[in-house]
Structures are given as structure tokens and as C-alpha cells.
Write a structure and sequence with these properties.
Blueprint: H1 10-13, H2 44-54, H3 78-88, H4 97-106, E1 116-117, E2 123-124, E3 148-153, E4 159-163, E5 168-171, E6 179-180, E7 190-195, E8 201-205, E9 220-223, E10 247-253, E11 256-261, E12 264-269, E13 278-281, E14 305-310, E15 318-322, E16 332-337, E17 340-343, E18 361-365, E19 372-377, H5 379-384, E20 390-396, E21 405-409, H6 411-415, E22 437-440, E23 448-451, E24 455-458, E25 466-469, E26 498-506, E27 509-516, E28 519-524, E29 539-540, E30 555-558, E31 565-570, E32 576-579, E33 586-590, E34 597-600, E35 603-610, E36 616-619, E37 638-640, H7 645-648, E38 657-660, E39 663-670, E40 673-677, E41 690-694, E42 700-707, E43 710-716, E44 726-732, E45 739-740, E46 757-762, E47 770-774, E48 792-795, E49 803-804, E50 814-819, E51 825-829, E52 832-836, E53 844-845, E54 854-859, E55 865-870, E56 875-879
Parallel strand pairs: 2-33
Antiparallel strand pairs: 1-56, 3-4, 4-5, 5-6, 7-8, 8-9, 10-11, 11-12, 12-13, 14-15, 15-16, 16-17, 18-19, 19-20, 20-21, 22-23, 23-24, 24-25, 26-27, 27-28, 28-29, 30-31, 31-32, 32-33, 34-35, 35-36, 36-37, 38-39, 39-40, 40-41, 42-43, 43-44, 44-45, 46-47, 47-48, 48-49, 50-51, 51-52, 52-53, 54-55, ...
Length: 884
């Protein structure tokens, strides 16, 4: 029996052009089909074929005759842009927007009550209860949490984990028993963590993986006593210079801290923390804030820097790794010559210096100063090689970042080192622009850990490598779906897609800590391996005390088997979680990325989970399965029921899905078309969807809602800041009465602005009474046509006319809304939840959450509890009565 192939997440798709078709595999596909890989809605061989077809359509550098002055090409995949464009279109957001919004939110009067985290318990991705066809259970990742962008550790057992959207966490026990330490900051997005020689912890905010759901940061902060203290706004280093940037690395040398950011390389004294940051180098300063081209749509891509290498023997010798991962003329390595930063063009050895082959780069040096190491991702490889974007791993045996550099690994060699990624079209480094870390054992300059999609180790300076943390255990002879075992006879591995690494000590023993899309894992630095080179001693540190889960959605229904309710939700790269009322551990019943969610309020095991681009799986038993479908496909208990816009690619990465508020058997989904199906959770085929309205070529739905057969659909197209347009269409679920609402193109005061329309909330008493949430920032911060003002609008005539009811609402992107049973209105924003009581016009802040995006709100079946899906801190609840 061939091993199952896990559903790939959106980051796979980031290597594919927006025009590449995405093919859904029926969940009932029998084993032996599609390369003998029955798992999931998409298989790696299909994605590899799509990526192969797209090669040549992607261009690392736009040619001059492309008409956009060599700016960003269309190789930036649709999925990687959409989360950001919802918040920036129709223009570019000026620095300081989120900081101002956070200050404004803090000034709002508060409601009563407090939030309760319901997902602060272990989340087992290998839960043996859920081994159905669309699950990844038995892959070997064990307990998981949200994406970790950076890790730091000391020799006293203290470990610090910086998450993509859930802040920084501290463990005093070598990992586990975590506590949040950055909740008072106006951003919870981590770019870099680093301990300096004095034991201070430095935090660079703004995740720099060019990921679709990454947030810009508010600068750099330092914690003088990281064993006990917490970060505060008073601990920010310098002024506002690094606001609204992302920070890839922080490096130390010569009494300075260096920051590689999305707006050039900056430095600051490590002794005097006040005073402005110094801009050391920006390849295209005219695109920086205040520059002559600051408003150019591609300004965000013109000054990206990745890392700084400082010669330990002479800190005045510095090498900068500069460049956008998809390619630009400025990509390369730079050093200071005669007081000016100059591109290195020769004398580097094997490490390329030409713009086409220098992309995302990570450096690491040995503690004794004898070795420097580097990973290089190549824009040209990304463009021309369907197998990998990795140029190679290199060593400078002189110990100087000036080289000469020698290549010690390429993707073929890593694939042969026990990798799980050996299929053409999907091999080590295929996402090297997103997955990178390097660390050298402080006790041995030839002992190196490297992270790409997997974790690799060399003990001889790169002569030989072992894949100590394979992507998953599927495909290995030791794998088995047997629910009595976690992953057959294989050892546990880490979650895939590596981002951060640190080496520290606990109780006198050295450990390596890795951060990835599933959280934090550790093993002894000199750990054991099996005959395949796989580590036998990985331990997940995601014990439930650290909840950085990145939810896109939440669903709540009655738990008919145990009483209470069942809570489920779709997650970035961690599938769909399911929490039954008697659970001590959450399970994962669908794999890959989980998008929108529908849950039957009357039966929480009736679930529809959206994978990306409107691929929808449905189950009527919570997808409980012991894996017996592998030999008998008829025993599968989940089904792929995607409407046709999934196959044509005419839906957004996270596409809208809703049930009619008056009839849970009627569903509405949005891509280019508005789709309706009336079989509820009994649907078994995508053919059961009916297109009731065509939003038009180039248009795609951003929000849908229905009540009593009346349907609202919002759309955008184009959806980025180059010609952004939006609209609203209204009609009936039976296909009658459809029409477009006339919205002023200019977004005049009091009217719906020309920004991303994110959600509807329909009054349960009157389907013509509807609320609209609007993302992005108002024109104070967004210099785009028709940005207008306002974030919440009300219509009492079925969407024909709208009134701005934002009043004292902070200028912050809004994402979702729900009408409470008493007639109040709760609104989810990028920084928390606000509430307008019935009969009132002003807004209150609901409870106190960290500065984390709340992407969706849902009510419990009895309407008494509000559930908030946060994109970085799990799912929270609060009693509706406490909002009044």
C-alpha cells in the first residue's frame, strides 16, 4: 500500500502562478489512484505538475518592456497577496496606522465580562480518532500550535518563542509551561528574537517571511530581564523609524544591533537605546516613506533585506544580504568599501553574487569564529526549476563573511539524506524563500542544523547530511495508519516548514529548539538517529499552555454525544480543529489549511470545512474514522463537495461560505459565481451546487450571507491596489431578482468606501436590515482612490442605500460582525472586538484581548455566548450578557 499524501497548504501554492489551475481530487478516490496517494484533497504530484506548468510564467525580474519599470512581477502567487491586499487596497498604508488604531481602541469604554480561551489545551494533529481521508493524522507532528517565526534560548533553561501573530512566549523549564510576555505591545507579530551578550532579549516585530497573513510591526523592543519581565511600549528601541516594517534578523557587532528589514538595513547603539535608528543601506531609498516613489504600488518590494553577517574578528567588516525573494535588479551581497556600500561581484567562491541567484539568504557563524555558513534561495531557480528554489548551503572556512565560500549542500543531496520530499516538482527547498534557518553547535563549528521544509543536520561541516526532521512520516516503510499507534513504527517528527532555531541548555544538557508552522520542538543537540538518519528524540513543546493557533473561522454546534457544545475552526497550516465537550485534547479531523467553516447548530458533528480556493469537505460524524477506508473506500466519512470555481481558480484563497440563517440546509458560497446548494450536510458532490449569479469576469466574492432566501454577496476585482474595485450584489437563493448595488466609485463621505468588503451581518428579524464590515484603513492612512472613511455600514432597504455607523470606532480593519439576540452588534477587528448596544450609536471595547486579529465571530446555538476566532491566539468566548 502506498503511503498517503497530505493535503498541501497554501504556501505550496505560493510557488505557483495565479493562472495555474488547481485541481480538486474527490475524497472518494480509491487507493492507487493519483500516484497511490489517497490522502487529502490535493496531492503533491498534482501540485508538482502544476508548478512545472507554471515555470516560465514566473519571472524573477520583470523585463523593461513589461511596462512597469522592472517592478514586482506576477509570480507573487495570489494566495500570498490576498490577506495583505484586504488591508491595504486601494493604496498603500502609511506607517503608524496600527499603532494609532491600538491607541484609539485602548481609549474606548469597556464592556463588562472577560474573554475565556477555549483552545488553551493540547491540539493533537495525530489524534487517532480522526483518521479519515481528509485528515493528516498519523503524519508524526504530534501536538501543534500556530506558526513560530523565531526562537531564542539561553543556558539557564529559558526558551523564548516568537509567533507569527500571537506574540512572544517564555518557558522557564527548557520548553513547555509557557507564559505570554508581549501582550502589552501594539503588535503580536514576531520577525526576530535574539539574546545579546548581556542576556537581554531583543524583539524585532513584523514577520518577514513574505507570508500572506503576516503583519507589519511597530519596531524593535528590548527586555533587560527576560527571565522575569515582560515587554512594554516603553521598551522600544529608537523612535518610529521601524514602524510598519517587517524584520527578518537582528545581529550584533561593534557595539551596535543591526536590523535587516523590509525597508533596508538599520543600526542602533546597544548601549544607549534612545535616539533614532540609523539607515545603513537601502538599495532604492526613493521608495522609502517620504521618498519620491513612496506611493508606488511596488514600494514594499524595493528595499527588502534578509540578513547581516559581521566578521567576528573585525566587526567593521560587514556583509549585507539584500534582495526580494522573487528577484529584482538590486538583489545581491553588499559590503562597505571606502565608506560606501558596494555590491560584491567577485571573490566570493561558490556563493553566487549575481542578482538572478541571490534571493532570501540566512547566515550563521560558529562560536569560535572559524566558520560562517549561509543558505541562499535563488530567484532564477524559483522561476526555472520546478523541483526547488534552493541555490545551496555554503561555508566560509576562513570564518569571514567575505569568504571564499564553498557549497556544501544542494537540493538533490538533501533529498538523498532521508528526506520525505523526493518527488519531482516537490523537493527540498521548493519553498526556500519561506522556510529557512541555520544554527551552529556552540561546541562544534562543524555541527550545523539547517531548516527548509524539513530539518537537516551535518556533523562534519557539510560533507554528509541527515534529514533529522522529515516533512512527515508518510511514504516511509515504518509508517502505518494503525490508530493504536501515533505514526506506525516511525518516530515522531517535527511539523513542516521551518522558520526559527536556537541552541540552549537545560539541567546541563544542550538542546536544539526549532520553530515552524506547527509551533516549537526540541531534541538533544547530539541526539540519536535511526538507520535512515531520522531523529528518534524529537519532543513537541506545544503543551497547550502556548496557544498561538491562527484561526480563519469558528463553528459551534450541540454535542449530541456528550452534552454541551462542539467547537471547530479552520486554521493556517494546521487543518481543522475539533473540540468535543468532554475533550482534554483537541483533535484534527481535516488536514492542510482550514478556511471558512459551517457547523450545524443542532449537531456539532455536521461540519463543512473549506480548504483553500473553495475546496469544501463535509462530514456528518465529525470525520471520526479509524483509517479502515484505506482498504475499503466506502468507509470514508468525509466528502469533497467543491463548487466549480475551485477547479477554475476563480475563488479567493479563503473564500466565503455561509448557511442561510433561517434554513441551515441552504448554503451559499462565493467565487466568481454565487453558488447555492440546498442539501445541507447531506451534500455528497460538487455537482449539487447551482450558480445563481455571475459576479463577472475578474470579480471574486469576498463575503456572502443569506437569510430566508435573500442573499448578499460582496466582491472585489481587481483586488489589489492596482485598479482596485469592489461591489455588492443582491438576489435570491433560487436565482431570481439578482442585481448589482450602485456604490459611488469615489467612496464619498457617508457612503461605502472603495475598500475591501469583508462581511455581512443580517438582522434575524428582517432580511432587508443588514450590516456591512469594511477592511483596510480610512483615507487618513490609505493613499488610494476612494479610500473614504468608515468601517461599519447599515442598510435598512436590502442594500440599496447604506449609512456609515462607525462613529467612535477606531480606524482599523474590520473583518466580521454578528447581530446578538438582543439587537446589539458585535464587530471583529484586526485588534479585537467592539460592540454597539441596542439603541446606542457609540462603540465599546469587548473585554481585553492582545493586539490580535479577530477574523470571525459566531454565536452559540442558544445565542448566549459569543465565539471569536483569532488569527494568532486561538478561540475565545464571552457571554453576550456581559457585552451590555
Amino acid at each position: 500500500m502506498s503511503a498517503p499524501t497530505r493535503k498541501r497548504r497554501w504556501l505550496t501554492i505560493c510557488a505557483i502562478t495565479a493562472t495555474a489551475g488547481l485541481i480538486a481530487i474527490p475524497a472518494s478516490a480509491a487507493p492507487g489512484q493519483h500516484g497511490g496517494s489517497p490522502f487529502g484533497a490535493r496531492t503533491l504530484d498534482q501540485l508538482a505538475a502544476e508548478r512545472t506548468q507554471s515555470v516560465g510564467a514566473m519571472s524573477p525580474k520583470v523585463k523593461e518592456d513589461d511596462g512597469d519599470d522592472g517592478n514586482e512581477a506576477d509570480e507573487i502567487a495570489e494566495g500570498a497577496d490576498q490577506y495583505a491586499e484586504a488591508r491595504t487596497s486601494p493604496g498603500i498604508v502609511a506607517p503608524g496606522a496600527y499603532g494609532a488604531a491600538w491607541a484609539s481602541l485602548a481609549k474606548l469604554p469597556g464592556t463588562g465580562g472577560s474573554w475565556r480561551n477555549v483552545t488553551d489545551l493540547p491540539y493533537d494533529s495525530d489524534d487517532s480518532r480522526y483518521r479519515d481521508i481528509d485528515s493528516n493524522s498519523s503524519g508524526g507532528s504530534g501536538n501543534v500550535t500556530g506558526r513560530m517565526a523565531a526562537v531564542a534560548a539561553d543556558d539557564d533553561g529559558y526558551v523564548y518563542a516568537g509567533s507569527a501573530g500571537g506574540g512572544v512566549w517564555r518557558s522557564r523549564s527548557g520548553g513547555g509551561h509557557w507564559q505570554p510576555i508581549s501582550d502589552r505591545l501594539p503588535t503580536q507579530s514576531t520577525g526576530a528574537l535574539a539574546l545579546d551578550g548581556g542576556g537581554r532579549l531583543w524583539l524585532g516585530t513584523g514577520e518577514a517571511t513574505t507570508n500572506a497573513d503576516a503583519y507589519l510591526g511597530s519596531g524593535v523592543y528590548v527586555l533587560s530581564d527576560p527571565h522575569h519581565g515582560t515587554f512594554s511600549t516603553r521598551s522600544r528601541v529608537g523612535g518610529h523609524e521601524l514602524e510598519s516594517t517587517t524584520i527578518h534578523e537582528l545581529r550584533f557587532g561593534g557595539g551596535k544591533v543591526w536590523a535587516a528589514t523590509s525597508e533596508g538595513v538599520w543600526s542602533h547603539s546597544t548601549k544607549k537605546l534612545s535616539g533614532a535608528w540609523k539607515l545603513e543601506y537601502a538599495p532604492n531609498p526613493e521608495y522609502l516613506p517620504g521618498g519620491s516613489k513612496a506611493d508606488d504600488p511596488d514600494a514594499a518590494y524595493k528595499n527588502i533585506t534578509n540578513d547581516i553577517a559581521i566578521d567576528p574578528k573585525n566587526p567593521s567588516k560587514v556583509v549585507l544580504a539584500v534582495g526580494w525573494r522573487s528577484g529584482d535588479d538590486y538583489n545581491g551581497f553588499y559590503t562597505r568599501t571606502n565608506g560606501a556600500w558596494t555590491r560584491i561581484t567577485s571573490g566570493f567562491g561558490d556563493l553566487p553574487t549575481d542578482a538572478d541567484n541571490v534571493g532570501s539568504v540566512t547566515f550563521a557563524r560558529s562560536a569560535d569564529g572559524s566558520r560562517y555558513y549561509a543558505i541562499d534561495q535563488s530567484p532564477e531557480q524559483l522561476n526555472t526549476n520546478p523541483d526547488s528554489g534552493l541555490e545551496g548551503i555554503y561555508v566560509s572556512k576562513s570564518g569571514s563573511p567575505s569568504g571564499p565560500w564553498t557549497q556544501i549542500a544542494d537540493y538533490q543531496g538533501l533529498a538523498a539524506s532521508g528526506s520525505a520530499l523526493t518527488s519531482p516538482g516537490y523537493m527540498p527547498g521548493v519553498q526556500a524563500w519561506y522556510n529557512q534557518f541555520l544554527s551552529v553547535d556552540p561546541a562544534d563549528p562543524e555541527h550545523v542544523y539547517a531548516g527548509l521544509e524539513e530539518v537537516y543536520e551535518t556533523k562534519d561541516g557539510g560533507t554528509s547530511w541527515s534529514t533529522v526532521g522529515p516533512y512527515w512520516n508518510f511514504g516511509f516503510s515504518c509508517w502505518s495508519i494503525d490508530p493504536a499507534k501515533q505514526t506506525g513504527d516511525c518516530n515522531p517528527t517535527t511539523h513542516s516548514d521551518q522558520h526559527g532555531v536556537a541552541i540552549g541548555r537545560y539541567h546541563g544538557k544542550s538542546f536544539v529548539y526549532v520553530g515552524n508552522d506547527g509551533g516549537v520542538y526540541k531534541r538533544p543537540v547530539n541526539g540519536s538517529q535511526d538507520s535512515s538518519g531520522h531523529a528518534t528524540d524529537w519532543a513537541s513543546l506545544n503543551d497547550g499552555t502556548i496557544d498561538t493557533l491562527q484561526y480563519y473561522s469558528v463553528g459551534v454546534g450541540k454535542d449530541l454525544d456528550h452534552g454541551g457544545v462542539s467547537v471547530t475552526g479552520g486554521l493556517q497550516d494546521n487543518g481543522q480543529s475539533v473540540l468535543r465537550s468532554n475533550d482534554k485534547v483537541m483533535g484534527s479531523n481535516f488536514g492542510g489549511d482550514g478556511g471558512d467553516t459551517l457547523t450545524d447548530p443542532a449537531n456539532g458533528c455536521n461540519i463543512a470545512e473549506e480548504y483553500v480556493y473553495l475546496s469544501i469537505q463535509v462530514t456528518q460524524n465529525c470525520a471520526v474514522n479509524d483509517g479502515s477506508w484505506i482498504t475499503d473506500p466506502g468507509k470514508a466519512t468525509s466528502y469533497n463537495v467543491a463548487p466549480a470555481d475551485n477547479a477554475t481558480g476563480e475563488a479567493r484563497f479563503i473564500a466565503p461560505l455561509a448557511a442561510d440563517a433561517k434554513n441551515s440546509s441552504t448554503w451559499v458560497a462565493g467565487g466568481r459565481h454565487v453558488w447555492v446548494q440546498t442539501h445541507g450536510y447531506a451534500i455528497r458532490s460538487g455537482d449539487e451546487w447551482k450558480s445563481v449569479y455571475d459576479l463577472g469576469e475578474g470579480h471574486t466574492a469576498t463575503a456572502v450571507a443569506a437569510s430566508g432566501g435573500k442573499v448578499y454577496a460582496a466582491w472585489c476585482g481587481p483586488c489589489n491596489n492596482q485598479g482596485f474595485a469592489r461591489g455588492i450584489s443582491v438576489g435570491n437563493a433560487d436565482g431570481t431578482g439578482w442585481h448589482n448595488i450602485t456604490l459611488p466609485a469615489t467612496g464619498a463621505d457617508g457612503t461605502v468606501p472603495n475598500r475591501y468588503l469583508s462581511g455581512f451581518a443580517i438582522d434575524p428579524k428582517n432580511a432587508d436590515h443588514v450590516y456591512l464590515t469594511v477592511s483596510g484603513f480610512s483615507r487618513q492612512w490609505t493613499e488610494g482612490p476612494g479610500a473614504g472613511v468608515g468601517h461599519v455600514f447599515e442598510s435598512k432597504d436590502g442594500g440599496t442605500t447604506w449609512k456609515d455607523i462607525s462613529k467612535n470606532l477606531p480606524d482599523v480593519p474590520t473583518d466580521s460582525a454578528v447581530v446578538t439576540p438582543n439587537g446589539g452588534l458585535a464587530v471583529a477587528t484586526d485588534l479585537g472586538v467592539v460592540y454597539r448596544a441596542p439603541g446606542r450609536t457609540s462603540w465599546q471595547r469587548v473585554g481585553s484581548l492582545p493586539a490580535v486579529a479577530v477574523l470571525q465571530l459566531k454565536l452559540s446555538p442558544d445565542g448566549r455566548t459569543l465565539y471569536a476566532a483569532t488569527h494568532g491566539r486561538g478561540i475565545y468566548t464571552i457571554k453576550v450578557r456581559d457585552c451590555d
